[in-house]
Amino acid sequence: MSAWQIVLKSLPELLVAMLKYTIPITLISFALGLILAVLVALVRISPSHQPVMRGLKGLTWFYVWIFRGTPLLVQLFLIFFGLPYLKMNGHAIIELNAWTAGILTFSLNTGAYASETIRAAISSVPKTQWDAAKALGMKKSLILRLVIFPQALRIALPPLSNSFISLIKDTSLASGITIIEMFQVSQQFAALYYNPLVSYSLVAFLYLMLTTVLTGVQSWLEKRTSRYLLSEGQ
């Protein structure tokens, strides 16, 4: 079978896998990871006068340390294959299907990395912004929502966008826990047609197109969020 015939037969199923698994896994995992990242970042920048807060800060530090310090593939295997071996009275305490395990792992991994991005972005906002808002009688929650977060978002946008683009590519690891996303489909076609060069080149091209589009969106968002700074500089 010619390379062109393999492409024509493979492309529809690869696109279905992209729409059914790769994109949904990425969107859901990034959204959940971002929520977790904001919560973790807020805990880590909060004062630790109370024992409960010190405990939470230690817990979030440990979480970030674990998920930033171990490979994503190992995390996937631990959660999907390893957790069922935690048993009580001969029965598994936690047993997740592949989809749930994938979403959970990608969310936790994204949350760990994004929390550091958000924490650094919030910390980089000048202290004078806090002082000025406090002088106006604003509460801390209102200062964070209306003054600090908008400025931190502009700072955090480029690295968060890069994390999202990386997550698109990292979903290919989900093939290791039996999720039939794009890469696993390409593996099936490589075995079926005995031409891994064409199959893997095609899936690489599809990932490249996805990341190229997202890179364009990232550039537009950066210009959009910086338009006021640009106008002031002019």
UniProtKB/TrEMBL annotation:
Principal location class: membrane
CDD domains linked: TM_PBP2
Pfam families for this protein: BPD_transp_1 (PF00528)
Statement: the UniProt record of this protein carries the keyword Transport: yes
Top-level division of the source organism's lineage: Bacteria
Cell location: Cell membrane
Transmembrane portions of the chain: 21-42, 62-86, 197-217
Domain ABC transmembrane type-1: 19-215
Membrane topology, from the record: Multi-pass membrane protein
Keywords: Amino-acid transport, Cell membrane, Membrane, Transmembrane, Transmembrane helix, Transport
UniProt cross-references to InterPro entries, sorted A to Z: AA_ABC_transptr_permease_3TM (IPR010065), ArtM/GltK/GlnP/TcyL/YhdX-like (IPR043429), MetI-like (IPR000515), MetI-like_sf (IPR035906)
Record PANTHER family: L-CYSTINE TRANSPORT SYSTEM PERMEASE PROTEIN TCYL (PTHR30614:SF0), MEMBRANE COMPONENT OF AMINO ACID ABC TRANSPORTER (PTHR30614)
Similarity annotation: Belongs to the binding-protein-dependent transport system permease family.
Protein name: Amino acid ABC transporter permease
